[in-house]
């Protein structure tokens, strides 16, 4: 698979009062993959996947508010929680007139993208979950510091989470659980960290961390969507992820028995080391679809 004749465009669009940055490649008449990143990265995480799949898909990868190169005007008074990220994503797909797409969700992209699925279920042609959790049993022990913050949002518990915003912590998220860390491009975790260090961004991230608890209350609605719509689903998961653990991957089949579940010998950022394999599996499961 090669996208030699399908260059990647780097664009902005006005949506929800924001200037949303996104990457786009492929023929717009081909099936659309809507690629939704997570913490602490951006659409940058999809750069190689886009290159591998642009010959057969139309790929669109936005930067969520607070991440990457999306611009939020101060006068907008934007509230950084997952409901608002979902609203912005809904405005984004409307601004691009995306009427049908396969959702690729990772990390924070899961609760954001699944809110979009609840709002516009008729537009979802399929689902790819790469360490994108929607089940309580998928939350590992690495969430314990966050659970303390949810239970007691004190200044002390908030400050304790700033360690997750450092270069060392971000690098650890990329490398932990990987058999060969030489496959991980160091510019990925360096750029993630630099973007998080912009003025005010650390508190944006801590606000989102606190609000993540509200995603758990929506899990039953996400699961109902899986049961009601039974869209083609590929769950492809780094099994050594300390945040989103394998039971969260297997749980998808409880609500959609047709879901294909595959565990990879990888960590949280499985795409960084297993991008070729993930691209092949996406092509196998969704490449022939023309919804």
- The amount of helix comes to 40-55%
Task: Specify the overall morphology.
Answer: globular
Q: Give the C-alpha Rg.
A: 18 Å
What integer is the average pLDDT?
A: 96
Description:
This protein is of the alpha/beta class. It has a single domain (9-140, 215-286), classed as Alpha/Beta hydrolase fold, catalytic domain (Rossmann fold, 3-Layer(aba) Sandwich), CATH 3.40.50. Helices cover 42% and strands 16% of the residues. It is built from eleven helices and eight strands. It has helices at 47-53, 82-95, 109-119, 144-151, 155-160, 167-175, 186-196, 201-229, 246-250, 252-255, 270-286, and strands at 9-15, 18-25, 32-36, 58-62, 101-105, 124-129, 233-238, 260-264. Strands 1-2-4-3-5-6-7-8 form an eight-stranded mixed beta sheet, with helices on both faces. Strand 5, helix 3 (109-119) and strand 6 form a beta-alpha-beta unit. The longest helix is centred in the last third of the chain and has 29 residues, at 201-229. The two termini are 21 Å apart.
Keywords summarizing the entry:
single chain, 291 residues, alpha/beta, Rossmann fold, 8-stranded mixed sheet, 11 helices, 42% helix, globular
């Amino acid at each position: 698979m090669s996208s030699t004749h399908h260059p990647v465009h780097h664009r902005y669009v006005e949506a929800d009062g924001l200037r949303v940055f996104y990457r786009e490649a492929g023929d717009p008449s081909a099936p659309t993959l809507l690629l939704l990143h997570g913490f602490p990265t951006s659409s940058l995480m999809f750069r190689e996947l886009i290159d591998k799949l642009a010959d057969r898909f139309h790929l669109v990868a936005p930067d969520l508010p607070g991440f990457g190169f999306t611009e939020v005007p101060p006068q907008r008074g934007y509230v950084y929680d997952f409901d608002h990220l979902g609203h912005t994503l809904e405005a984004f797909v409307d601004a691009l007139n995306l009427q049908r797409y396969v959702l690729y969700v990772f990390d924070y992209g899961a609760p954001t993208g699944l809110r979009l699925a609840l709002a516009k279920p008729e537009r979802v042609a399929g689902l790819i979950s790469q360490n994108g959790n929607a089940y309580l049993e998928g939350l590992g022990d690495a969430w314990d510091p966050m659970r303390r913050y949810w239970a007691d949002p004190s200044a002390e518990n908030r400050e304790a989470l700033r360690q997750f915003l450092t270069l060392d912590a971000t690098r650890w998220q990329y490398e932990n659980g990987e058999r060969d860390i030489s496959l991980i491009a160091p510019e990925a975790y360096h750029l993630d960290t630099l973007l998080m260090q912009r003025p005010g961004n650390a508190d944006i991230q801590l606000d989102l961390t606190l609000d993540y608890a509200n995603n758990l209350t929506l899990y039953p609605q996400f699961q109902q969507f899986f049961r009601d719509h039974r869209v083609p689903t590929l769950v492809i998961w780094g099994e050594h992820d300390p945040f989103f653990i394998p039971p969260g991957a297997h749980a998808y089949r409880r609500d959609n028995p047709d879901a294909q579940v595959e565990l990879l010998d990888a960590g949280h950022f499985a795409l960084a080391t297993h991008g070729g394999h993930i691209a092949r599996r996406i092509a196998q499961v969704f490449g022939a679809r023309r919804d």
